[in-house]
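user: can you give me the structure for this one chain? tokens are fine.
assistant: on it. calling the predictor now.
[tool input]
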Amino acid sequence: MPKHGASKSQGPVKLSIIIASLLASGCAQLDTLSNDLFSQKDIASQQQPHNSLDPLEAYNDAKDPKFILSEAAKLATEEKEYAQALGYWDQIISQYPDYAPAYVGYSNVGRKINAHQKILAKLYGFKATFPQDVSIMSEIAKVYYDLKNYPESLKEIDNAIAIEEYDWKLYSLRGVVSDKLNYYSEARASYDKALELSPDNPVVLNNIAASMIRSDELNEAEFYAIRAMETPEANIQVYRTYAKILALQGHNDKAKEFLTQKLDNKNDVNNILKSVSADISQPILWGRR
């Protein structure tokens, strides 16, 4: 399994800023520069449906201004230039107010800088016109989750599931929110449904492991964490969960050794260990303990 934490090039973001500026001014050389940008990235071969929960997978036309600015926003986000990324999404929204992926992108970035009230205003503005857009409902639920308004979050998720009953992401999110509300049987049912729709999905498996930690069922938690790690898509969040399980079992040295093997970046290792230590020191936050 490859290590995570390699550094990213600074070049793409600078190019994305140039492209966005040219786009705003209507420069005729936009096509050439957009080709330079997208030669660095793989563009999906098929369009995703309107209700896709991933805003950057919605369109793939390299000459579409919406797509160009979306890519610029994605690159800026990867480099943690969140204000710049938010500006790109806002620019798309102002020009294309019916383009749902821009609102989702705005929400994803805005939540990183605690702009929750601004996000809700935009999302509800869109929802007033398109009340059944599942991607917008999902984002509203995530914002309420961040604000610890779990009942409203769950309500929005259930509204979305009533429209789109075969999306594993909605059920996985429902499980996470249900755990926060201490609806443990509902949470497990939601996770099981998510796994039914997306077998061996590492996100769902990791969420189940985290849920088992909350109930102090460490053997069960370890089982699901290991299953998540065995998938090709295992990521740093999965590693963090497993390290936390090891630490809770009293194996701090094993946790550090494990993370060091999986992650190239020593700062990531240290940050995760500090975070795990902080979590363990506050068991009241886990829920069922």
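assistant: here you go. Residues 217 and 241 are 13 Å apart (CA to CA). The two ends are 33 Å apart (CA to CA).
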